[in-house]
Amino acid sequence: MAKIVVLALLLLLLPCLLTVGHAMEFEGLKHIRTQTSSITQAQAVTDLIGRLLPADKAKAFHVTVDASIGPANRDTFKLSSDGITVNITGTTGVAAAWCFQIYLRDFCRCHVSWAGTQLDLPAKWPVVMPARSNTVPNRFRYYQNVCTVSYTFAFWDWSRWEQEIDWMAMNGINMPLAFNAQETIWQKVYLKLGFTQDELNAHFAGPAFLAW
C-alpha cells in the first residue's frame, strides 16, 4: 500500500518536476508586445535614475534598450562599469531598470524599498569588468493583490504612484494587477441587466471598498 501511495505522489509531482529549471509558457499571451519604442523606454529608465539619484551621480549612467541581446520573451540585461561610466543595456525598459537596481544593491550596497531608502553611494562607481549579463527565466513577474487597490492605492497622489511604478520597474515587475475603471464595467453589465442608474449609485461603495 505504501508503495502505491508513493508512486501516486510521484505521478502527481512529475509535471512539476519536469518544469523545474524551465520557464512556464503562456500560449494565450504570446501576442502581448510593448508598443513603446526602445528610445522611449531607455529615456524612461534614465528619468527614473534621475528621480532617485542626485544629478551629478545620475549622469554617470548610460542606458540602452536593445531587444536583440537576449532570447525572445525573456528579459535580459547587461551591466558594465569602468568606475566612471555605468553602462546598462536591457531587452526592455523594465530589464534595464532591474539592472540598475541590482547594481545599486549588489555593487554599491544601497537599498531602495517601501520602508525606506539607503543611498549612501560610493565616491567612485564600483568597476564591473568584464560585463555581466543575466536572462530572467520567466516572461511575466506578477505583483499586487485585490485588497491593496482599496487599502492603499485609492488614496495615493501622482508622486506616490510614480515612486511605486519606479519601484516595480526596479524589481522587474512587468505584470502589475490593475483595476482601472472596473466599476465602469460593472455599471454597463448591471444596466443591461435592468438596474437603474439611481440604484447603482446607491449600490456602489467609495474607493476604499471597491475591492469588495
Overview of the structural elements:
With 212 residues, the protein is an alpha/beta fold. The protein is built from eight helices and eight strands. It has helices at residues 2-19, 38-52, 55-58, 93-107, 146-151, 158-170, 182-192, 197-203; strands at residues 61-65, 76-81, 86-90, 111-112, 117-118, 128-135, 142-143, 175-176. It has a four-stranded mixed sheet with strand order 1-3-2-6. β4 and β5 form a beta hairpin. α4 crosses α6.
Write the layout of secondary structure elements.
Elements: H1 2-19, H2 38-52, H3 55-58, E1 61-65, E2 76-81, E3 86-90, H4 93-107, E4 111-112, E5 117-118, E6 128-135, E7 142-143, H5 146-151, H6 158-170, E8 175-176, H7 182-192, H8 197-203
Parallel strand pairs: 1-3, 7-8
Antiparallel strand pairs: 2-3, 2-6, 4-5
Helix pairs in contact: 2-4, 4-6
Provide a compact summary of the structure.
With 212 residues, the protein is α/β, with parallel strands linked by helices.
What is the number of strand segments? Answer: 8
Radius of gyration: 22 Å
Give average pLDDT, whole number.
Answer: 87
In one word, what is the shape? elongated
C-alpha end-to-end distance: 47 Å
* Strands in their spatial order, largest beta sheet: 1-3-2-6
Give keywords.
212 residues, alpha/beta, two-stranded antiparallel sheet, 42% helix, elongated
